[in-house]
Amino acid sequence: MELLSNTSVHHAVPDEYVMPPEKRPENEELVDPCTVTLPVIDLATARHLVVDEIMEAGKEFGFFQARTSINHYYHQLPIPCFFLVGLNASIDCCKQLSCAQVVNHGVGEDVVTGFRSAAAEFFAMPAEEKLPYHSGDLSKPFRVDTSTAYVDDVDHRSSRYWRDYLQLQCFPTDRFEADWPGKPDAFRGSLTAYAAAVQQLAATVVGLVSEGLGLDESFFRGELSGGGTVMNVNWYPPCPDPSLTMGLLPHCDRPFLTVLSQGDVSGLQAKHRGRWITVHPVPNAFVINLGHMMEIVTNGLLHSVEHRAVTNSSAARLSVVSVIMPEMDSRIEPAAELVSEEEPPKFRPFLFREFNQAYADVAANREDVLHRFRIHPNPRHGPVE
């Protein structure tokens, strides 16, 4: 079994991990100087103010951060497209940025660090102890693998992302915990606590989004979030030459909501107004972003956002991505409350299963996949046949 995490130090980028030149990050994109002052939204304050700030940021950026505690982060912070969710504190909102930090989300710092530590221990285990879980079978409820292959459309050359990952089903926890590894000792217990806390946070956020859209607070419950929660735990070891490879190529997430713990090492970048901006880590923060289904159900009012992962040469990075999935046969279409004569539906109805297939067919390309479901497609694609 060849995993990047099986080797303590990598002195060169193997050929299979070298991306085509047009897919590599520009040198200036690996060092992003952009800084802005982010306002704070306190979830314990007036609910209508919280809803307004979330909706404005969703329209402008489609991303926000959630933090468990606020210490001294009222100063200049990178990236104008995220909220922070913490335990206390508030400052004036920076309206012109349409973004915010949010406090009082209720996820304990010990819950986050507990699972992150256990996941890091898993990747550090000897290769023979990880071997029983190694698989490329996407249907398995728990597996470890190295990267996935990107295949160039022109010369069909295959390149790998610079990452190992765990992919697992984690909620409802009682259904899947028997499939999780017994080592390290803290893995199962810490994952159970983390998965439950993230599920509650996601339910809170989509409830606020529902209210902001003028929908019933329970709109996203049931089949739209009943497909379980899939988690990817990504391990990006130090890369000897970050300019040659990628952790993940640009993509938008499929479902309504993704909750990410990225730790204290940079790597996540989001596309905003045509440029890549680094989402610098904030201690104890979650990054929450809206996916394709949210854009479609809101009839384009809120946006899915392209993001990617770059590598670095100095430190390993671990990210924990929790994806709240619809049921495969759930019907997806613009909410009736958001459609009118002035705002006709922009997307046709479909089953989530159909979207999954289209997403795979076009290798997660944002415009190509949305084109397949648009009633009024992007002009660059021409009319639908």
Structure description:
23% of the residues lie in helices and 21% in strands. The protein has 385 residues and is of the alpha+beta class. The protein has a 7-stranded antiparallel β-sheet with strand order 3-15-12-17-10-9-6. Strands 11-16-13-14 form a 4-stranded antiparallel β-sheet, with no helix packed on it. It has a two-stranded antiparallel ribbon with strand order 1-4. β13 (268-272) and β14 (275-278) form a beta hairpin. Mean pLDDT is 80; it is low at 35-40, 68-105 and 381-385.
What is the gist of this entry?
It is built from eight helices and 19 strands. The protein is α+β, with helices and mostly antiparallel strands and 385 residues long.
Describe the protein's topology.
Blueprint: E1 36-37, E2 40-42, H1 47-60, E3 63-67, E4 76-77, E5 101-103, H2 109-124, H3 127-130, E6 142-146, E7 149-151, E8 158-160, E9 164-171, H4 173-176, H5 187-213, E10 229-236, E11 248-251, E12 257-261, E13 268-272, E14 275-278, E15 285-290, H6 292-297, E16 307-309, E17 317-324, E18 331-332, E19 350-351, H7 352-361, H8 366-371
Parallel strand pairs: 2-5
Antiparallel strand pairs: 1-4, 3-15, 6-9, 7-8, 9-10, 10-17, 11-16, 12-15, 12-17, 13-14, 13-16, 18-19
Q: Report strand order across the widest sheet.
A: 3-15-12-17-10-9-6
Class by SSE composition: alpha+beta
How many H/I helical runs? 8
Q: What's the CATH H-level homologous superfamily?
A: B-lactam Antibiotic, Isopenicillin N Synthase, Chain
Which descriptor suits the 3D outline? globular
Oligomer: single chain
Keywords: Iron, Metal-binding, Oxidoreductase
Family: Belongs to the iron/ascorbate-dependent oxidoreductase family.
GO molecular function: metal ion binding; oxidoreductase activity
Organism: Eragrostis curvula
